[in-house]
Amino acid sequence: MAKRTFSNLETFLIFLLVMMTAITVALLSLLFITSGTIENHKGSHYFPTTQSPPATQGSTTTQSSTTTQSSTTTQSSTATQTSPETSTPEPPLFQNFSGYHIGVGRADCTGQVADINLMGYSKSGQNAQGILTRLYSRAFIMAEPDGSNRTVFVSIDIGMVSQRLRLEVLNRLQSKYGSLYRRDNVILSGTHTHSGPAGYFQYTVFVIASEGFSNQTFQHMVTGILKSIDIAHTNMKPGKIFINKGNVDGVQINRSPYSYLQNPQSERARYSSNTDKEMVVLKMVDLNGDDLGLISWFAIHPVSMNNSNHLVNSDNVGYASYLLEQEKNKGYLPGQGPFVAAFASSNLGDVSPNILGPHCVNTGESCDNPNSTCPIGGPSMCIAKGPGQDMFDSTQIIGRTMYQRAKELYASASQEVTGPLASAHQWVNMTDVIVWLNSTHAAKTCKPALGYSFAAGTIDGVGSLNFTQGKTEGDPFWDTIRDQILGKPSEEMKECHKPKPILLHTGELSKPHPWHPDIVDVQIITLGSLAITAIPGELTTMSGRRLREAVQAEFASHGMQNMTVVISGLCNVYTHYIATYEEYQAQRYEAASTIYGPHTLSAYIQLFRNLAKAIATDTVADLSRGPEPPFFKQLILPLIPNIVDRAPIGRTFGDVLQPAKPEYRVGEVAEVIFVGANPKNSVQNETHQTFLTVERYEATSTSWQIVCNDASWETRFYWHKGLLGLSNATVEWHIPDTAQPGIYRIKYFGHNRKQDILKPPVILSFEGTSSAFEVVTT
């Protein structure tokens, strides 16, 4: 192509961008801190209930204060070292039965719900401003009758599991349980909600996307994951596991159908759809047949909540968990009760829940084309929509369909899972894997890099700079800016990644820390005839099919016939996407985000077959451990500072600014506005375990009974940030048709940050109460 020359305006823009970037890098360097630790959050989920007659005026109460503390640690290349602890003694296990010891546990891992980016869309300005639902870690422990072998599967309501998160969890498990729970028999999997907090990563690309590292959120996530495992460990009892499978219709589309069509026609002809519709369900019961828990694997992106959302929530899969847990845990508030239901991620890479498909938002015409672009406005106008009237409605429609199908499969599950438990794990340098294409020819993986179409985003969430999907050539303008700021990618890297035009050569960038991981986890755990493959990224539909078939064939070739292989996505460390070699050639978003090059999938298939062989031949002990990943401690401070909260003159925190109306009908929205404080203070001081309650007055007991909290889908908590520490909090209750007539009130629980001159800051708890109001049915 002809050499492009730049106008004076373009030259000036390039100079301006270079100068701004240089200043930003300098400021970020000054912001380097040694990330401290905060006190682990302990205690059960207590929701306060007051004993008093109906309130007629708003009121506030100050309850407690905590002085905030910080500490420093040193940089290390391995996981943090905690103080030695005595290993938790293993309780005696009843052994004379057929089945498994089963333990289930659930714990809050929400983290910050304000002043932090939401993780998933990488959209600047999409920061948390409240909460729609709590986020939970759901743990399942399975052990053989004699307790000799056990496995742990944890599904977590977060965007993905970061390597830092996994290393810290494993280190603390070792401190508490010794060698009982290890890197090989513990899988951590993210549900991939795009509405959870960011800030828990260590590699620079993700730290930039998070706008810094949030130690508060990181510690809260670690504590929640550990607590869910502790609960499961404590609650282990003899039981049985059953498996069932069935299709779920009407909730998915393939968001990159033109990439899918690049796969061989003979391969595509074997499948009736360009998405995997099959749901796999594990049913767990005790020996009396009483329900314990459910794990479901199904391929769907939790992006029903779009990138205009600012409320922390678990999206469509979380709503499915919510419905099933509420049904099984009658009489309990959300997040409580013994039954645990996890809707885990699978090969969701190219699967969208926005089933109405992509349309140009300015004209309404379809933009289902190879570049996902519109005639007027380009790719930024091409957005897919869900089936509902808005994103909240779409989330519930998709989630309810998954819940109903899982419920059916759970009820009819009759095939028992039996047989020994096993696990295999390796750390692998994914930048240098030799891939044997056949008996005579080999290729290799590449150092990580992101292509141009990565910046385009998807029809579920478009990029902000009008990049286009399907780009197989670079652009001199952006290449020049990249070269001036970050340097040029090497010729070796460009050659390795072809036909991907490299936008960011992350594998050759190491300041302040490596931009992407080199060392990656590969892992399989087996329960009898079930194999769970822990995938460190997002497999596309066809990638998942190929990997499942290859692993199943490997097991069969060594005598383990008829294995069911499930893909568990977003596990252990995040490495973006894994497209097939053929899809890679089209260079849409998923292919441009396949960071280890065109042979990434082939490398993973090779590695997982090796693990399957080791399990089938009982040679797991002979597997090499692999190079241990680093654990960086010196990370960038969040760009949003902590400031002192202030109430308006003549007001106190928790005062009612806008009262509830005296009466509401079912289907209406009760709304109360309070004098607020920054919700992120509540991560440091958990005096309250919810930001809100909806309470109903019981005349017979003359007490207020909680009917909803901030984990309930009919409540919404909005935080409105003002200037100089001023803020308001809005609590909404979308009154359901099932609400009983009666007298209600809304309470708000918060924490404000206070700091006197020459004294450390303290966090003070407070609460506010609305006036009483009546709910009527007609």
UniProtKB/TrEMBL annotation:
Domain Neutral/alkaline non-lysosomal ceramidase N-terminal residues, every copy: 100-606
Active site: residue positions: S352
Biased composition (Low complexity): 48-88
Transmembrane segments: 12-33
Cofactor note: Binds 1 zinc ion per subunit.
Annotated Zn(2+) binding sites: H192, H301, E538, Y577
Protein's name according to its UniProt entry: Neutral ceramidase
Organism: Sapajus apella (Brown-capped capuchin)
